[in-house]
Amino acid sequence: MPKIKLPTKSPHIDMTPMVDLFSVVLTFLMLTTTMRQPEPAPVDTPFSISDKTAPDANIMTVMLSKDSRVFFNIDNGTDTSLHFKGKILTEMGKRYNITFTPGEVKLFENYPSTFGLGIQNMKTFLNSKDVKVKESLQLKGMPIDSLDNQLATWILAARQVNPNVQACIKGDVDAPYPLVKKVLDILQDKNVNKFNLITNLEATEVKQSEL
Amino acid sequence: MAEIIQEDKQKGGKKKPKHHSTHIDMTPMVDLMCLLITFFMLTTAFSKAKVMEIYLPEKIKKNEKVEPPKIAESRTINIILGPNNKVYWYPGRIKDIKNPPMLQITDYSDQGIRKLLLDRNRLLFKKVAKFKEDMIRENPTMNRDTLAANIRRFNKADDSGPIVLIKAYKESRYANIVDIIDEMAICNIVRYALVDINYAEESMVKAAIGQTSTAAPSNP
User: Fold this and answer.
1) Is the ipTM of this complex over 0.85?
2) pLDDT bracket for residue B216 (50, 70, 90)
3) Which residues pair with B138 in a beta bridge?
4) Which of B29, B110, B126 sits opposite A211 (nearest CB)?
């Protein structure tokens, strides 16, 4: 009896549908992505029912971490060709008698995340490529005490360069109240009376029947 | 995702012109795509951050004399944000520093401070909720801004709701402030203000904390 020969199938799998799907997902992600920015300290924002989205541009962010450090960031505004960030840094340099080279200004403009250090260390901070050095410079955060209130100067400089700037406060759940109060006071001293507190959305509803 | 390419067996000595398969090996492309997808998935921030807006009254300059606004005592509730997520509150104002009003203790849950605020603000809250419901039923095409404007009109005309003075004790956290302002939004409270805590209230809170901590060990 002749043996029954099984037809030998090619072990090849047709990957075309998979590739199609992957391309679609990839295109979608590439188009919708907004990069998450690395942050110098982990900040866990509180929840609220507010569903207003944060403004995209013209913001200055004051970040308050759990361990009472203050960080600051500004953006370039809606028109990046105006180089607001760089101008603010040069303005800051003028006030503290530090001249920043165009290279350093450029580095500052491209630095994506918030920073918390005294302006005296800014040169070393911008020129170093080592993440550990950057971290160690930010151990104390931005100086905000009344002797050397650099946060106030940053706010003033930011508002002078970009009058449309809005204040955002991104505080950690466990940031102590006296610090929050201090930062609010500093902002109010510079005539900023409207704040955006950055929160996460959490839906809560009060039912009619509960009344 | 590896691919095994089968070699064709050549029969006999006949030489056929080599037949190139039209098939392209897609494996490297798939590999690369996997990598890119993973990268994008991990770095994307899908949900944009939400913000809660607050407006604080302008600071009074040093040599400027401004009368503080007069508010009805009967409508006033003082909320003091205490340590350990506790809320202390008392109605009205302190008339006699030596004999301060009792502080009530509650928390941020929906049975705590929300119940109290809703209770005080029931009239306005019901009005707004009813209006919203009617609008959804009768005029669902009304846009959000018009709805908000109408609600604002109600809010402005309201003269029964509480006036909440929010004061934070030094040991409270940032989340407490956000929670309490959020609670104002949930309960639709129109008139509230962040106020500095005064000395009398601070000592009242201190006394209240002392009471609870001495009372705690006695009931296990």
Assistant:
1) no
2) very low
3) none
4) B126
